[in-house]
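Researcher: Next entry in the queue.
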Amino acid sequence: MLAPSGPLVVERFGELKQAVQRVVDAGGRRVVITLEHVPYADSIGIAELIRAHTILVTHGGQLTLARVPDRVLELLRMTGLSAIFEIVGSERDAFGP
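Model: Structure for this entry, 97 residues:
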C-alpha cells in the first residue's frame, strides 16, 4: 500500500511512478494507493496515477485507489478516468473481507 501525502502536482513528478515501479520490481502486482492525504491533483498528478496504472497492467497487476478525496474524485470523474481505476472507500474494501 502506498500513501502519498500532499498534493500530486508537477513539482512531485515521478515520485509515485518510482514507488510503484519499486513494488513491481520486488514482485508485487497489486498496489493500493490511499489518497486520503492528497487534497489536490493537477494534470501531472493525474498523469502519475495513469502511469502507475499502466505499469501495473503491463506486468499483469492491478491498481486500486482508496479513500479518494471528493476534489480528486470529481476530477477523475470529469475526465472519465474513474472508469479505468478501481476506486474503493477504504483499504479494507480493496483487500476484501
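Model: Residues 21 and 63 are 12 Å apart (CA to CA).
Researcher: Noted, moving on.
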